[in-house]
# Entry
Amino acid sequence: MSEVVAHQLLDGRRCSEALRARIAEEASAVKARRGRPPHLAAVLVGQDGASRTYVESKVKACEEVGFRSTLITLPETITEDDLLHRVKQLNKDKELDGFIVQLPLPAHIDADKVTLAIDPDKDVDGFHPENLGRMVLSQPGFLPATPSGIVELLRHYHIETAGRHCVVIGRSHIVGTPMSILMSRNAYPGNCTVTLAHSRTKDLAAITRQADILIVAIGRPEFVTADMVKEGAIVVDVGIHRIPDATRKSGFRLVGDVDFEAVAPRCSWIAPVPGGVGPMTITSLLLNTLKAC
Ligand code: NAD
# Structure
């Protein structure tokens, strides 16, 4: 007979509240020391609705912790050269501690070129190759916001990670790949034996069933089902999707990459969607901005 495990939530909202209270204290100390609070700018190119929502919630989070924030909106038609010029201006702006360029960018702009143009000391998204290299070498730098938010979530709930088998699904540059590196580092949280699964992985379920810690960043709604998860596993769901739902006033509901209803009863801990990784990503951005000053 299989053991029934009562799952507990890795609650990103509560964890963020605790961390943001500390960030707010630090922000007022910074303001007292140098006469102005930490200052983050966000560059939004074009009118993509999801990107605007993400950027606006970042700006709002800045205001709530007492940071200054600047939202720079640029037209969809901006040329690559003009955007690179704006990035260079922001690099030089002494009133600014850090900035992000919200991705994705329009197809005519090379996002890698833009990332490379950002001063690594102001790259609070942690996407610049110099910061990614520093992460690999365990040197101080800016960690990419989503993986570092997950690390903070595991730390907040004192999740034991050393010696455990962590399976990460998805190898994107912003989530899966850095996540696999952070979980294998000689640090806490870390010291896991890591398997990185991706679109060419064979018999994915056989691998995920071996996971003590399963981190899912695949971008497919409710892809991970109960039969893919070991009893007692810790599951972190990174995905976020709007699913049409006529019973809701909004007309949609948010789901992750994991079938929460079916999977949660098998887990010891699980991060829900919404309210798990999402708030932690923004909190990491605030932490990076604080670090930048
Ligand atoms: P991505 O599309 O760049 O990468 C998806 C990865 O999944 C790829 O590496 C691919 O190899 C892998 N994959 C695809 N199909 C697979 C399959 N059948 N089996 C195994 N692996 C497969 O996505 P991303 O940018 O890493 O984002 C993943 C999800 O996380 C998305 O839903 C995104 O919206 C969400 N996200 C959430 C936050 C947050 O703060 N909550 C932040 C970033 C991304």
In short: The pocket of nicotinamide-adenine-dinucleotide is lined by residues 146, 169-172, 174-176, 197-199, 201, 204, 217-219, 238-240, 277-278, 281 (CB under 6 Å). The mean pLDDT is 96.
